[in-house]
Amino acid sequence: MTDTVIPSGKRLPAAEATGLVLRRVGMASFIGTFVEWFDYASYGFLATVIAVVFFPGTDARSALMATYAVFALSFIVRPIGGVIWGHFGDRIGRQKTLSLSIFIMSASTFVIALLPTYQSVGLWAAGLLLATRLVQGFAASGEYAGAASFLAEYAPDGKRGILTCLVPAGEAAGLLAASLFVAILHGLLSVEQMQSWGWRLPFLMALPLGFIGIYIRRKLDETPHFKMLEQAHHVPQTPVVELLTKHRRELVIAFGGTLLNAVGFYLVLSYMPTYLATELGISETAAFVGSTISLAVYLGSIFLMGALSDKLGRKKVLMVCSVLFAVLTVPMFALLSGVVFTGMNSAGFLVILGVWSLFGALLSMNGGTLPTFLCELFPTRVRFSGFALSFNSANALFGGTAPLIATWLIGATGSKLAPAWFLVAAALVTFAAIAISTAGRAGSALKDE
């Protein structure tokens, strides 16, 4: 951990966190992102059910697109939330900000479980769903960036990659838990039961999980890097203004560098079960089993990629990942579209698992490395703001909309490979952005000025 340089030229010694503190910080960061992505993934995995419950009376594709439109619209508030949460995170500290964001996130998700359906209140049901999703999206916009900044500012230089990847690990674990939970629901409940009350169950779990996260976070101190800024009376008054006037280049790099993560994450780990079920005719149970295995590969690979980034640097790992996605995505989608699925014991299902697992491993190269790269790109004074604004803007424009865009592209072109080309374009943009960056090299330290 580097020393903090203040305007007078004095240097404040960096504080080193003990192993116990690091474990507590890691748990706090993990549980927050776990809660966030369990909630978000539940909506994505239940998209076909929600489409029937909230948008009946239309054809299946239109209802599904309406469901994904609500999913996408909730991302509109993310850049706004990124500015607001970033301001408070850089002004009053990471710990207080993260405790509030997880509370709002959990409460709004819990409310989704209590919403009336179209059968009860008509179009008001869709309006209420959108309103709760907007609140949920606003709260979520502070979670990922804040948790990554919080953990990175505690981690020592040589282990920052492997420790900070606890944040995407929490993300993956939340997705995995949601996938398992929804798969069990589909296996145990009838279609009528799922549409009547089964879809509510994952959202009911948000409140108790959120209280666990709040309890853990309130027991932690502020990060050493932020404390040193406070001691030096060097906390920025308007971090977003400083970010937009002094760090525009870093913002552009961060936005482009996040694009592959945004598109890939939602296409591979959230939209893919729906794609396989609706476009390729695979059973929902088989699709969710495949999703679970892919997520397990993703989660198991994340720490390996974090450790690799500590040795090679974030920049090399992210650039190699971008190249692999650009080269392999279309052939892998083509392989999927040619599969003949005859059951979960068929050769076709094994091909699906193999392709999906490879996608999960590739995505872990990006997901396990990107949070640390973004933390190293911005100085402590504006780290939360820079991370939150760039990450949430990329996810708002291209991540949350990815399932909607993919569904529309298939309908417009008639090609089941259309989502693959969308992902290739994102990979090329990310490669270009990372290539021009000077951050993320092996041995990089956090910038305090």
TrEMBL record:
The UniProt record lists the keyword Membrane: yes
Cell location: Cell membrane
Annotated TM spans: 37-57, 63-85, 97-115, 161-185, 197-216, 251-273, 285-305, 317-341, 347-365, 386-411, 417-439
Membrane topology: Multi-pass membrane protein
Gene3D superfamilies in alphabetical order: MFS general substrate transporter like domains (1.20.1250.20)
Major place of residence: membrane
Record keywords: Cell membrane, Membrane, Symport, Transmembrane, Transmembrane helix, Transport
GO-annotated molecular function: symporter activity
Stretches assigned to the Major facilitator superfamily (MFS) profile domain: 25-444
GO annotations of cellular component type: plasma membrane
Keyword Lipid metabolism: no
Pfam family, one: MFS_1
InterPro entries: H+-coupled_symporters, MFS, MFS_dom, MFS_sugar_transport-like, MFS_trans_sf, Sugar_transporter_CS
Family from the record: Belongs to the major facilitator superfamily. Metabolite:H+ Symporter (MHS) family (TC 2.A.1.6) family.
PANTHER family in the record: ALPHA-KETOGLUTARATE PERMEASE
Name recorded for this polypeptide: MFS transporter
Native species: Aminobacter anthyllidis
